[in-house]
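Thread: "does anyone have the structure for this chain?"

Original post by V.I.:
We have the sequence but no experimental structure in hand. Need at least a predicted one for the grant figures.
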Amino acid sequence: MEDAFDFDLRRDLLSGQIVERLQKLIASESLCPGDRLPSERQLAEQLGVSRSVIREAMGVLKARGILEARPGNGTYIRKPTVGDGLAFLGSLLSLQQLSDRYEDLKEVRRTMVVEIAGLAAERAEPEDIADIEVALAKIERHAQDVNQLTRDELAFHSALGAATHNEVYEVLVLLITNLLFEFHLTACRCNPRDVLESALHHHPLILECIKAKDPVGARRIMKRHLRSAELLIEAAQNKGEA
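Reply from O.Q.:
Generated one for you, tokens below.
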């Protein structure tokens, strides 16, 4: 293990260099998920830096979800999850002008959400159906609150993602719907009646297809719903530009 930490450091940006080195060791599998790191004192001695520099570098890696502290038992390499990678992707996308990415996001959503509806119809368990029903009931209950209506609409899609029993789909749909939240909110504010009408028309039909184990029907209705949502978003954008 000591050989892995045997390298030269410049005297500037020490903690940043340690972060970079540890990440490279993990990527090369010299350090693996579940491995326990040497103590701060041991690392400081091996690397020839102060413990405060080590502490700062480890804080960065903990914030990135790469390391985890186990009280009384040291610091370990954390096993990454699907959500970690997608959360990082979401952070990168959120730093960009999402208005310039709308067409790309729309294309991804159209492909993904239609498939999610079909898989939900094939795989949904009774508890999944109950969660979808709860999400639909919230849409009906919050019809007059555009902010909450938008959140409930996205929660319905999140429930469909969970019903696929595929963690990647579940997290992806959360990522895409959250990135598109402001677009949906704008459409809802501009034309709440049509947004609500589309949701209350298509969502119950999708739910019925899921209950009937009808993936073809679920995909077909979801395509119609997405097209309706896209038209409402485009109408809101055009209104804003006018």
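V.I.: this helps a lot. The chain is about 75% helix and 5% strand.
O.Q.: and The first helix runs from residue 14 to 27.
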